[in-house]
C-alpha cells in the first residue's frame, strides 16, 4: 500500500481520484433530453447551428437604424432630416407609434410615414401574470409566425426585462425547450428593442404590480430569453446601442444595467470585450468539468471550460467589469461539492475579485432528471465556493408559477 492510498483526505488526492471518490458518495445523473430527441452529427455529437437560416427578414423599422441612418432615410422619403429626431422622440421617449399622437408631424402623409417606419413587429399572443402582478411573461408572434418570449419583473428599486434575441436557438442544450426545434432565425435589432418599448408602455399604463413612482420604466435588461445572444452578434450589439444611446437617439439606459449572457462563444466574448460598451457580461457555465459540460452545454465541444473562463477573465481585464458566472443547480447532475471546489479553483487560478457566481436552483420537476437540487445541497455548494473566497449569491427563480424557464411558453403553443 502506498502512503497516498493510506491518506483518506480527498484534498491530497489527484483531482480525478477525488472526483471518483465523491461520485461514489453521490450519484451522477447524466444529461439527456427528455421527451424529445437531440439532433446529432454523424459522429454522434449534439448538432450545433451557428448561422441563421436564410429566411425572409422582418420589415425595416426605425429602431433598426442609427440616428444618421434615420436622417438618411428621412431624406430618402423627401423629408427634412429633423423629422428623424421627432420620430425617434415618439418611439424612444414616449413609446408610441400612434400617428394621432404625433401632432408635430404634418398631417398630410403622416399615416403613411408611420406605417413605413413603424411596421408592427410583435403581436401579443399570450400574457401570464403572477398573483402579485410583479412578474409578467409575454409570448409574441413575429411577422413570420415565429414565437418568442420576454419576461418582465418588478423588484424593489428596479424593473428587469428578460429579452429574446433569436427565434429558436442553435445551441441544442438538452434541458432547454427553446433549443429543441433548432434555430428558426436571428431576430432583427428592432424586434429586440421593441420588446423593451412594449414593456415600457405597459409599465406606464400601470399594469406591472404596484407603482413605486410615476416615472417608471425598464431599468435593467438581461439577454436570457430565447436564443444565444452572441450568435446574433451584430443585431444584439445594435440593440444594446439603442438601449444606451441618449434619448431621443435611444432609450438612454445605463450600459451597466444591461447583461449580455452566453453559453461560451469564445471569439464573440473577445469581440465583446473590445467594444466600448461597459455592459455586464455573464457566462452560463453550469459545469466546471469538460466531461459533464460537453453533454450539458454542447457548445463546450467547440470551446472548452478553460477557454471560456480565460475569455471571461480577459473581459474583466479589458473592461474592469466584474463577470457573472451563471450556474443552474440540477439535482445529482452538477451540484456536487467537488464541482463547487473545482469551480472555485479554476476561478481563483485566474485571480481574485474578478467574478461573482450566481447559482440558480432549477424549477422543481418531479419525476424529471432536470430538477432542482435539494436545499442542503444548494447550501453546501454555495458554502464551498464562499469558503474558497468566491463571492456567491443564490438567485431566485422568478415566475415559477408561470413557467419562468426560457422557451416553455413557446414550446407549449
Ligand atoms: S439554454 Fe440558451 S443557449 Fe442553450 S439551447 Fe436554450 S436558449 Fe439556446
Furnish the topology, listing elements before pairings:
Blueprint (H helix, E strand, L loop, with lengths): L2 H4 L8 H11 L41 H10 L5 H12 L16 H8 L5 E7 L5 E7 L5 E9 L2 E5 L3 E3 L14 E4 L2 H16 L15 E4 L9 H12 L13 E5 L3 H9 L5 E5 L5 H7 L8 H15 L3 E7 L7 H13 L5 E7 L13 H13 L20 H5 L1
Parallel strand pairs: 4-7, 7-8, 8-9, 9-10, 10-11
Antiparallel strand pairs: 1-2, 2-3, 3-4, 5-6
Helix pairs in contact: 2-11, 3-4, 6-7, 8-10, 11-12
Give a structural overview.
The termini are far apart. The longest helix is centred in the middle third of the chain and has 16 residues, at 189-204. The chain has 13 helices and eleven strands. The chain is α/β, with parallel strands linked by helices and 413 residues long. It folds into two domains: 62-117, Orthogonal Bundle (DNA polymerase, domain 1); 123-412, Aldolase class I (TIM Barrel, Alpha-Beta Barrel), CATH 3.20.20.70. Residues 1-12 and 399-405 have low confidence and may be disordered. The structure holds iron/sulfur cluster. Iron/sulfur cluster binds next to loops.
Amino acid at each position: 500500500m502506498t502512503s497516498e492510498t493510506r491518506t483518506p483526505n480527498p484534498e491530497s488526492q489527484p483531482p480525478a481520484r477525488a472526483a471518483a471518490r465523491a461520485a461514489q458518495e453521490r450519484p451522477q445523473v447524466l444529461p439527456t433530453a427528455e421527451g424529445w430527441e437531440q439532433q446529432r452529427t454523424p459522429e454522434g455529437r449534439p448538432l450545433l447551428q451557428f448561422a441563421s437560416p436564410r429566411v425572409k427578414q422582418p420589415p425595416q423599422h426605425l429602431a433598426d437604424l442609427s440616428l444618421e441612418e434615420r436622417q438618411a432615410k428621412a431624406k430618402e422619403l423627401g423629408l427634412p432630416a429633423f423629422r428623424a429626431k421627432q420620430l425617434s422622440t415618439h418611439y424612444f421617449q414616449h413609446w408610441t407609434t400612434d400617428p394621432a399622437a404625433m401632432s408635430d408631424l404634418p398631417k398630410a402623409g403622416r399615416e403613411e410615414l408611420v406605417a413605413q417606419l413603424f411596421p408592427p413587429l410583435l403581436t401579443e399572443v399570450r400574457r401570464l401574470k403572477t398573483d402579485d402582478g410583479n412578474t409578467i411573461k409575454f409570448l409574441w408572434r413575429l411577422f413570420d409566425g415565429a414565437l418568442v418570449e420576454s419576461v418582465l419583473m418588478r423588484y424593489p428599486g428596479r424593473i428587469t426585462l428578460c429579452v429574446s434575441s433569436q427565434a429558436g436557438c442553435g445551441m441544442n442544450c438538452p434541458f432547454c425547450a427553446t433549443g429543441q426545434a433548432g434555430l428558426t432565425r436571428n431576430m432583427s435589432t428592432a424586434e429586440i428593442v421593441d420588446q423593451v418599448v412594449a414593456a415600457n408602455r405597459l409599465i406606464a399604463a400601470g399594469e406591472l404590480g404596484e407603482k413605486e413612482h410615476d416615472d417608471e420604466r425598464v431599468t435593467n435588461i438581461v439577454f436570457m430569453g430565447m436564443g444565444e445572444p452572441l450568435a446574433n452578434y451584430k443585431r444584439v450589439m445594435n440593440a444594446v446601442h439603442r438601449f444606451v444611446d441618449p434619448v431621443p437617439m435611444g432609450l438612454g439606459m445605463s450600459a451597466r444595467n444591461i447583461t449580455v449572457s452566453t453559453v461560451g462563444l469564445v471569439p464573440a466574448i473577445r469581440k465583446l470585450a473590445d467594444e466600448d460598451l461597459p455592459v455586464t457580461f455573464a457566462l452560463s457555465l453550469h459545469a466546471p468539468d469538460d466531461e459533464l459540460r460537453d453533454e450539458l452545454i454542447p457548445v463546450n465541444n467547440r470551446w472548452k471550460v478553460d477557454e471560456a473562463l480565460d475569455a471571461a477573465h480577459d473581459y474583466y481585464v479589458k473592461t474592469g467589469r466584474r463577470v457573472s458566472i451563471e450556474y443552474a443547480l440540477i439535482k445529482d447532475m452538477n451540484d456536487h461539492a467537488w464541482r463547487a471546489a473545482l469551480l472555485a479553483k479554476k476561478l481563483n487560478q485566474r485571480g481574485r475579485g474578478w467574478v461573482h457566481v450566481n447559482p440558480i436552483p432549477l424549477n422543481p420537476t418531479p419525476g424529471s432528471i432536470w430538477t432542482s437540487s435539494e436545499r442542503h445541497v444548494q447550501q453546501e455548494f454555495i458554502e464551498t465556493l464562499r469558503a474558497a473566497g468566491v463571492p456567491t449569491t443564490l438567485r431566485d427563480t422568478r415566475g415559477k408559477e408561470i413557467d419562468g424557464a426560457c422557451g416553455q411558453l413557446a414550446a407549449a403553443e
